[in-house]
Amino acid sequence: MARKANRFTDLKQSLGAKSPTLSTLKRCTCCEEDKKQNEYYKVYSPLFKDDLFPTCKTCIKKLVDTDSSLSVYDMLRRMDRPFLIEKWEETKNKNSESDSLFGLYLKTISSATQLVLTWEDSMFPDDEDSENVTELNRRWSGFSYTDKVMLEDMYQEMLSTYEANTPIQRDIYKNICVARLKSNVAISQNNATDFERYRKIISSLMNDAKIKPVQETGFDEGSTATFGQFIEKVESERPIPEATGRFKDVDGIKKYIDKWFTKQMQRALDIRSKNDDLDDKIKDGDA
Fold first, then answer.
1. pTM (2 decimals)?
2. Alpha helices (H) in 47-94, listed in sequence order
């Protein structure tokens, strides 16, 4: 740990880091307000010259959902601070009613022995959350937590809708999701030029993947739509019609099948005689 701390200190000195003072104002990258440096969390990564995270405490409080472990993990990873399950549970138990749980947790792990720990030193609970955040960070590196969740939802939807048997197909689906996200941002900002550009990219990628927008709502012969899509189309567009005529009589339908299919097959296979037919007629009252 001492070597890690020294390495960070040497790197900061080589970058010309200066000791921050409370009188110096720093602009938040989120709300874009100038605030005193005590309004920011201290970090110990060589990536931050002034030892301060660029987003203020107020904005982080709004961004981090402490009920979502993935949200907590994502912010800690950006700050290069560790997630220590024991310390997190300890903080939650002591401050269960607090709305500043994330800040209190950072204060809890600010002891001298934990000061040099980074995200790589994290200790997760034995559940799926740690695997989920690792997968999210691996697949959608460089995006915010909110964008990662949206991208992952779109990606999983595509995997369940279209065939994804090869790495190339899955990679194209990932690119389609990114383009869809950017096109949504463009249209929300009334940027018609970027929106049109991303829609063309999406169309080109879908062409590469040999999928068509029509497959979203239907099934056509020769397409790559799944069997589930075909069943969905039949259920929604071709419901079983109401029985008419002789088909309203359930017993009559059975007689019809027996007469023109079952008995004919029995006779063809030589397992039925004319006497059997006569017995059935007597039983049914037709003789």
1. 0.44
2. 57-63, 69-79, 85-94
